[in-house]
Specification:
This protein is α/β, with parallel strands linked by helices. It has one domain: Alpha/Beta hydrolase fold, catalytic domain (Rossmann fold, 3-Layer(aba) Sandwich). The protein has ten helices and 17 strands. The strands form four sheets. Strands 8-7-10-9-11-12-13-14-17-15-16 form an eleven-stranded mixed β-sheet, with helices on both faces. The protein has a two-stranded antiparallel ribbon with strand order 1-2. A two-stranded antiparallel sheet has the order 3-6. The longest helix has 26 residues.
């Protein structure tokens, strides 16, 4: 397996660099080569609570920075199980002998967690969801630390790195399955923010065969005109939970099923966009432990955002088991503090 860096469509690094050199020679300065959104600049609140003004129009320098990220070498895979719920064990792609020294069990289902921008293995999403999954079922939980790609303050480069990391994680899963006999139907892949789109990219690169993909308030800036965003076909069943729609989170539908708790924004008990953004994984974690979130079917996502939902049919949000075959848009209300569920 090559460890060379590639851009979208697996373009070799030497080709990428030649293109970058061409642009620098042909166009003085730092030209824009792709407009991911109509709006160029966004204020995005990071996990540290600080708002950063970011440019989502991709420039030559952004591609140059992204080309330095090598996910096959830099991504780290942390395994948690009920036998090691708080201290992870590493799984190294290509090192089959190491798997036998861990608590990984190919007969169990496997959860894959993907953090967002400027985060790492210690992201709040992981501290919430790792114990929630392990309490709910005897599982393999693999936390992907892709901070080598997500840790840059250059948001456009982080968006590009989301794609290459997703391709690399798909290669990791393919290798792990070959080495252990695990199959795609055993997997549930969840990502928050940029990680939500990466979850889709992973599933897409595995032919849509993954059983269950969950997008937790999938990122909005940089994805409006981005063909790599999460799609319904990325897994057998895809579900999206929108909690900061239109600011940090994507507005429109992305999955087979899209939930808009409290209309998809302004979560009860929150007073910041980041708090709203993070409610998605808190709701997911509670759904694993106690369930209770029941959505009412809506005709459109605009109806869901205003609570005008009067169609017949309810559906539970989140949970351990994919609701394969279900489709639609759903609205529900939550409490301001745990337990969030009103069901």
């Amino acid at each position: 397996m090559s460890s060379g860096v590639s851009l979208e469509n697996n373009m070799p690094i030497n080709v990428c660099l030649n293109i970058i050199i061409f642009y620098y020679l042909a166009f003085p300065g730092d030209p824009v080569i792709q407009k991911l959104d109509e709006q160029r600049y966004h204020y995005i609140q990071g996990p540290d609570g600080v708002s950063h003004l970011v440019d989502v129009w991709v420039k030559v320098s952004d591609i140059s920075e992204a080309a330095r990220y090598n996910p096959d070498r830099q991504n780290v895979y942390h395994l948690f199980t009920r036998d090691n719920p708080t201290v992870s064990q590493p799984i190294l792609m290509g090192n089959e002998g190491l798997i036998g020294l861990t608590n990984y069990n190919a007969r169990r289902r496997t959860i894959v967690l993907l953090h967002g921008w400027l985060e790492s293995v210690t992201a709040d999403m992981n501290t919430v969801l790792v114990p929630a999954f392990l309490a709910a079922e005897d599982l393999n939980v693999i936390v992907v630390d892709w901070s080598g790609g997500a840790g840059t303050i250059n948001y456009a480069a982080a968006v590009a790195n989301t794609v290459t990391s997703g391709q690399s994680v798909a290669r990791f899963i393919s290798w792990l399955n070959t080495a252990t006999g695990a199959v795609p139907t055993q997997y549930h892949i969840l990502g928050h923010s940029l990680g939500a789109h990466q979850a889709g990219i992973i599933g897409r690169n595995l032919g849509g065969s993954i059983a269950y993909v969950t997008g937790l308030d999938a990122a909005f800036p940089g994805w409006v005109n981005n063909g790599n965003r999460l799609r319904p076909s990325d897994a057998v069943y895809t579900e999206v939970i929108h909690t900061n729609a239109g600011v940090l989170g994507y507005v429109a539908t992305l999955g087979d099923v899209d939930f808009y708790p409290n209309g998809g924004s302004d979560m009860p008990g929150c007073n910041s966009n980041e708090c709203d953004h993070n409610r998605s994984f808190h709701y997911m974690g509670e759904s694993l432990r106690t369930g209770g979130f029941t959505g009412r079917r809506c005709a459109t996502y605009l109806g869901a955002m205003t609570g005008n939902c009067f169609l017949l049919g309810n559906l539970r949000m989140g949970g351990l088991v994919p609701k394969t075959g279900s489709t639609g848009i759903f609205w529900l209300q939550t409490n301001a503090s745990p337990p969030f569920s009103r069901g």
